[in-house]
Amino acid sequence: FMLPTKGKLLFSSQQKTINNESIYKHISFASPYLQLEDDLSLEQNIWFYKQFKDLQIESSADFCKKAMFDKMELAKPIGKFSSGMKQRLKLAFALFTRSDVKLFDEPHSNLDAKGIDWFSENFHSFCNNSTVILSSNHQQKELSLCSEVLDIEHYK
């Protein structure tokens, strides 16, 4: 997260202005290139994430169940996860975080059909009270989640 060096960035929530240092608490983000702590276990990553963000799911066991992870994987280092499992974890963090804005960059990347279905179901369940921006490379299944599509190639 970088603070602006020029101009002003104004962010407000529920008629209250948010200072620049705490904007990160109001935004959740997931992308294929987002880094996880590979040396930490799944449970340690969940604990670490909760130090900065407000997850709607309290226990690690409930998080695993909702994010399609087996409880046995709680002790497994993230570095041993497949790319699809890592992507699902990144998406779960963004989905399950109480935030005003949710940003998803190519959410279906590295997911199998079961993972794509999981994301679609949870997208509708956990994004109702947030502004959502989803960027995609014209993946029809991703675009079908959107209520409005802006094609930047044809936008002037």
Average pLDDT, to the nearest integer?
88
Number of helices: 5
- CATH topology tier name: Rossmann fold
Shape: globular
Strand content: 5-15%
Measured between the Cα atoms of the first and last residue, the distance is 28 Å
Secondary-structure element sequence? EEEHHHEHEH
Content-based structural category: alpha/beta
Low-confidence stretches: none
Number of structural domains: 1
Q: How are the strands of the largest sheet arranged?
A: 3-4-5
What is the number of strand segments?
5
Tell me the name of the CATH homologous superfamily.
P-loop containing nucleotide triphosphate hydrolases
Please bin the fraction of helical residues.
25-40%
Alpha-carbon Rg, integer: 16 Å
CATH level-two architecture: 3-Layer(aba) Sandwich
CATH C-level label: Alpha Beta
Q: Which sheet architecture does the biggest sheet show?
A: 3 strands, parallel
Write a structural description.
31% of the residues lie in helices and 13% in strands. The protein is an alpha/beta fold. It has a single domain, classed as P-loop containing nucleotide triphosphate hydrolases (Rossmann fold, 3-Layer(aba) Sandwich). It has a 3-stranded parallel sheet with strand order 3-4-5, covered by helices on one side. A two-stranded antiparallel ribbon has the order 1-2. α3 packs parallel to α4. It is globular and about 45 Å long. The protein starts with 10 loop residues before the first strand and ends in a 13-residue tail after the last helix.
